Amino acid sequence: MTLITVPVELTSFTYTTVNNSIKLKWETATEVNNNSFEIERRDISPYWVKIGETKGAGTSTSPKQYFFLDQQLPSNGKYYYRLKQVDYDGQSKYSDDIEADVNFIPSVYSLENNFPNPFNPSTVIRYSLPFDSNVKLTVYNSLGQVVVNELSSGLKKDGTYDINFNAYALNSGVYFYSIRASSADGMHNFSVTKKMTLMK
Questions:
Q1: How far apart are CA 176 and CA 194, in angstroms?
Q2: Phi, psi of 81 (to 5 degrees)
Q3: Domain regions of the chain by residue span
Q4: Which of 63, 128, 140, 190 could connect to 181 by a Cys-Cys bridge, CB 3.0–4.6 Å?
Q5: Which tens digit of pLDDT belongs to each residue from 30-40?
């Protein structure tokens, strides 16, 4: 894709962590015909998602600062951000990406939907632990038979984990992945099962 050069001079684009959020900050030296900045984010997937928009300064010869607080992070991990600068005529230009490595302590246990799904032959399973916990992540076929006994197991520190599941040796079909977790102090337990589809 050919990007159209738009006369907005972006001098910096950075981030800081604020509580369990990412605060984006960018500065411009000059702006001409600048309508807005669209803020886009992606995670391990290749797909960018618009998460917000900030009004531009129009035409300005003095430095301007902008801020955006991303409070909708689904979990820990690496995130990438970019700006789409849009002028009043609808022409646009993308900034360079910046990478944010997020490692907040989750507030609750969770097991997310695998990505991609359907998959062939690999997919990523992500789970989160609010406490140090003993974990067992198991994969079953549609008959309830265990096909991978311990995809992830043992005592894990609090945090978010991405597990790569490679099903090259399995046949196409529906599979289930189940997590059982108990906090190291024995006071909290968590278990849930989700479905995924292998298509070869």
A1: 6
A2: -125, 150
A3: 8-102, 110-198
A4: 190
A5: 999 999 999 99
The residue type at 20: N
Output the pTM of the full model.
Answer: 0.56
Residue 19 has pLDDT above 80, yes or no: no
Q: Nearest-CA neighbor of 82 among 113, 51, 125?
A: 51
Contact present, 15 and 26 (Cβ < 8 Å): no
140 vs 144: CA distance, rounded Å: 5
**Same CATH fold assignment for domains 8-102 and 110-198:** yes
Report the CATH superfamily, name and number, of domain 8-102. Answer: Immunoglobulins (2.60.40.10)
The two three-digit tokens of residue 162, written as one number: 């991405």
Specify the 3-state DSSP secondary structure of 113: coil
CATH topology of domain 110-198: Immunoglobulin-like (2.60.40)
